[in-house]
Amino acid sequence: MSAAPPSTTAGNGGAPDAPALLSVRDLQTHFRTASGTVKAVDGVSFDIQAGSSLGIVGESGSGKSVTSLSIMRLVEPPGFVAGGRILFKGRDLVSFSEREIRDLRGRDICLVFQDPMAALNPVYKVGDQVIEALQAHQDIGGRAARERAIELFRMVGIPAPERRVDDYPHKLSGGMRQRVTIAIALANEPDLLILDEPTTALDVTIQAQILDLVRDLRRRINTAVLLITHDIGVVKEMCDEVVVMYGGRVMERGPTAQVTGAPRHPYTVGLLASIPSPGMKGQRLNAIGGSVPSPLRMPPGCPFQPRCPHAMPVCATMPSLRRTDSGSLAACWLYEERA
């Protein structure tokens, strides 16, 4: 898929026209299976400026999490990065050796997973796991590392941090465990924090607390945030820019206010229409008809065409990303003639 170059205009926290902290260019991540090759990510491009926030939104199976794992170089066989570049501070992470990428993870780029219980080691105290993250990248003694762990627990809102550092993960609630994983991720003050569905397993009240925490931490330490979520409502609250993905491809991309305020791709329109509102009490929820196609049997051209109310014969060919009248970029033939 050819795409117009991502905008160099920074979100909050970055200078206009400054080089991007992270530039993903035509990323392709595939999985070889007995039934064929799955193109989980198929030509994705976007930029994240230093100190800014970008959300990747889409249904399950759209390629969001595989994109984040590709950036971290955590895609395991039979998966592999088949093409494209992942430029972090101008260096292509795809070409990094295993040792180089291991040094980068946890120091410059950190990933917070969806399930904190799976991310934490159940046989080690949570404080020891923060200490391990600190000592892996810093020359710091045990006592100083413990004090820093307590400070981090306090910063992420864990009550009685002096006591909690000696707890095991099973003694903490889901919300507290997620705060621990965020503390571990922030231990070395990374330039980029990737959050992969960080609130999915939590109740609504705790979700709001975690999102408020991320927003506050971003302001305090100027960490750029890449938020992976299926909830476009969360992106509206949290992110400067948004990438809407479907079937491994980018459907729409641009400043969040433009994309959510005046959506142009039919898929983005459907996602926003499916958000419930207080005024809908007693009414049926809106939903996008059909389901995400099997990655082994993607339709030719635009992957959304079987579910799209505006599908045309030309949709059998994938359009490029084009500038729309709202200012966003949309991969849709509805805007090809305008371009």
TrEMBL record:
<dbReference type="GO" id="GO:0016887">
    <property type="term" value="F:ATP hydrolysis activity"/>
</dbReference>
<comment type="similarity">
    <text>Belongs to the ABC transporter superfamily.</text>
</comment>
<dbReference type="GO" id="GO:0005886">
    <property type="term" value="C:plasma membrane"/>
</dbReference>
<dbReference type="InterPro" id="IPR027417">
    <property type="entry name" value="P-loop_NTPase"/>
</dbReference>
<dbReference type="InterPro" id="IPR017871">
    <property type="entry name" value="ABC_transporter-like_CS"/>
</dbReference>
<keyword id="KW-1003">Cell membrane</keyword>
<keyword id="KW-0067">ATP-binding</keyword>
<feature type="domain" description="ABC transporter">
    <location>
        <begin position="22"/>
        <end position="272"/>
    </location>
</feature>
<dbReference type="InterPro" id="IPR050388">
    <property type="entry name" value="ABC_Ni/Peptide_Import"/>
</dbReference>
<dbReference type="GO" id="GO:0015833">
    <property type="term" value="P:peptide transport"/>
</dbReference>
<dbReference type="GO" id="GO:0005524">
    <property type="term" value="F:ATP binding"/>
</dbReference>
<dbReference type="InterPro" id="IPR003593">
    <property type="entry name" value="AAA+_ATPase"/>
</dbReference>
<protein>
    <submittedName>
        <fullName>ABC transporter ATP-binding protein</fullName>
    </submittedName>
</protein>
<dbReference type="GO" id="GO:0055085">
    <property type="term" value="P:transmembrane transport"/>
</dbReference>
<keyword id="KW-0472">Membrane</keyword>
<dbReference type="InterPro" id="IPR003439">
    <property type="entry name" value="ABC_transporter-like_ATP-bd"/>
</dbReference>
<dbReference type="Pfam" id="PF08352">
    <property type="entry name" value="oligo_HPY"/>
</dbReference>
<dbReference type="InterPro" id="IPR013563">
    <property type="entry name" value="Oligopep_ABC_C"/>
</dbReference>
<keyword id="KW-0813">Transport</keyword>
<keyword id="KW-0547">Nucleotide-binding</keyword>
<dbReference type="Pfam" id="PF00005">
    <property type="entry name" value="ABC_tran"/>
</dbReference>
